[in-house]
Amino acid sequence: MAIKVLVYDDNEALRTSIGALIESEDDLEMAAAMPNAETVETDLEQMRPDVVLMDIDMPVVDGVAAVRRIRQVSPQLPVIMLTIFDDTDNIFNAICAGASGYLLKQHVTEELPGAVRTVLAGGAPMTGSVAKKVLAMVPKAAAPEQETSNLTNKETAILQLLVKGYSYKMMATELGVTIDTVRFHIKKIYDKLHVHSAAGAVSRAIRDKLV
Whole-angstrom distance between the N-terminal and C-terminal Cα of the chain? Predict the structure, then answer.
């Protein structure tokens, strides 16, 4: 089964380009390309996408507000922000709203297909310059905060890689463990942080300065 991708962007030319890029990949399929997210809940129900690509600056309903609406009806559906904005406010707001990844439009051709696959594998794909800014938002936590989070050293290391956008496979390679071991630790992290997705864990890590 092909991965169904639903796109929201008010730029018609870009919607067409993204559609062509998605359809050129054997394992990806374009569910629809919408000019705004006004009917996002109905769209999800009717089209059942596997991944959503969401622009930030749109009329009627902006992308961050749309992500919040998606999270109310589908907490775990992967949503990748696709935007020209790489300022810290937009990045932070999008991630805290529940975005699963953050790509800049100028890198869409080389990064988008891999990002879709990565987010479905449990990663949080980000353009390199965005990941750098995300890491800059996450200073080292003080000891009391680390005690409150109750994460082990291994779990903290995996959470750091999750913030960097690593997939489960990449984490396993980096840490020299199996993918099943990574999944085990990810589940423990979710339980301890009281979240249900990679986006939730990244958001909590940033908000509470856990890594």
Answer: 37
46-59 pLDDT, tens digit per residue, is 999 999 999 998 98
The C-alpha angle with vertex 22 and arms to 121 and 164, in degrees rounded to 5, equals 35
* 56-92 per-position pLDDT tens digit: 989 899 999 999 999 999 989 999 999 888 788 888 8
pLDDT at 147: 43
Report the residue count for the chain.
Answer: 211
- Three-state SS sequence of the chain: CCEEEEEECCCHHHHHHHHHHHHCCCCEEEEEEECCCCCHHHHHHHHCCCEEEECCCCCCCCHHHHHHHHHHHCCCCCEEEEECCCCHHHHHHHHHHCCCEEEEHHHHHHHHHHHHHHHHCCCCCECHHHHHHHHHCCCCCCHHHHHHHCCCHHHHHHHHHHHCCCCHHHHHHHHCCCHHHHHHHHHHHHHHHCCCCHHHHHHHHHHHCCC
pLDDT, tens only, 120-167: 988 889 888 888 787 776 654 444 444 446 888 899 999 988 888 888
Q: How far apart, in whole angstroms, are the C-alpha atoms of residue 156 and residue 205?
A: 10
pTM for the whole structure: 0.69
